[in-house]
Design brief:
nine-stranded mixed sheet, about 350 residues, alpha/beta, Dihydrodipicolinate Reductase, domain 2, 2 domains
Length: about 350
């Protein structure tokens, strides 16, 4: 698969590192407006050609995949360009910055008959794949409820986020739009579609514009209740607080599964007094258990097999509908129902 990359910023570099470690993919071009950064990045990752115009790049190199790793305001235009050239697109999140633009993007790709996938890689973290496998095996019996406590500890003080992602500071929507959207997708991956949501959000750090703490309760159609409890100012005890961003507990009729901040999964059978580690293999070669590479490899594999990967643009709209419902629930102080959405 010939990959052309759009953007070489903070997270785009993780994309590029992952592509060069996927045997079935080759980075053939980079489009980046900053000429110096383009030259440095091309030299570092062995990219043979650089451009400052997306149309010129797509005309010249004719890639199989356009990897969009630029800010949300650029997404719709980039997806239109990919569709016009008959090129599949992988688009970073927040996907197009909001639900309406995302619907437009999904429609453009569908009408053009090209694949559009959202780069939502949390569900590809290896511990969630292991948890999914254990749940599907029936290990916990009937699943009652789940809780994820997000505690990255990077949101305190007047200089919060400046060292990594300074644009966080001015986002009018932060905790849910930028961060909790990952866990919304994980909850859907593990427990199926949601039918209603209740949310209460707040801003603890006055140095930023958006919310940085809050709770979200999702009622899933299958009966599971999933609680997201997020606070970007508080931390967790993991060696790397950003590895899992927090801890998860899932409780069922036959026992409990727990994810810790170091990526460990533990099982306690009902009635037991101790937990048992659930060993599984994963690598720390990239962020969050190398989930970026795992996701991109998933897309390549499905393209080669001519099958549909997870998190197509159309399917991802369900996450954005939940996001909008969360903000509506907070504003109205009530539970908000969710309509039928794409799976």
């Amino acid at each position: 698969m010939r990959v052309a990359s759009l953007g070489a910023g903070f997270f785009g570099r993780f994309h590029l590192d992952a592509w060069r470690r996927i045997p079935a993919a080759e980075i053939v071009a980079l489009c980046e407006r900053d000429a110096d950064r383009a030259a440095r990045t091309a030299a570092e990752f062995g990219i043979p050609a650089t451009f400052d115009d997306i149309g010129a790049m797509l005309d010249a190199v004719k890639p199989d995949i356009l990897d969009i790793a630029t800010p949300p305001p650029t997404h719709l235009t980039a997806i239109e360009a990919a569709a016009a050239h008959g090129v599949a697109a992988i688009c970073q999140k927040p996907f197009c910055g909001g639900l309406e633009a995302a619907r437009q993007a999904a429609g453009i790709a569908k009408r053009a008959g090209v694949l559009l996938v959202v780069h939502e890689n949390f569900r590809f973290q290896p511990w969630y794949a292991e948890i999914k496998r254990r749940l599907d095996s029936g290990l916990l019996g009937e699943i009652y409820q789940a809780t994820f406590r997000l505690r990255p500890g990077d949101g305190q003080g007047s200089d919060a986020y400046l060292d990594r992602q300074p644009y966080f500071r001015t986002m009018p929507r932060l905790l849910i739009h930028e961060t909790a959207i990952h866990l919304i997708d994980v909850f859907r991956y593990l427990f199926g579609e949601a039918k209603s949501v209740y949310a209460s959000l707040t801003r603890l750090n006055p140095a930023i514009a958006g919310e940085d703490a809050g709770i979200v309760l999702l009622d899933h159609a299958g009966g599971v209740r999933a609680l997201f409890d997020g606070n970007r100012l508080a931390d967790n005890a993991a060696k790397n607080p950003r590895l899992t961003m927090g801890e998860m507990t899932i409780e069922g009729s036959a026992g409990t599964l727990r994810l810790d901040g170091d990526g460990g999964v533990f099982h306690r059978a009902r009635g037991a007094k101790t937990e048992t580690p659930m060993p599984f293999e994963w690598t720390d070669a990239g962020p969050n258990g190398d989930s970026v590479r795992r996701f991109q490899n998933h897309v390549v594999r499905h393209m080669l097999d001519r099958t549909t990967p997870q998190n197509t643009g159309e399917a991802y709209l369900a996450n954005l509908e939940i996001e909008e419902a969360i903000y509506r629930s907070h504003a109205q102080g009530r539970k908000v129902g969710l309509g039928a959405v794409a799976g």
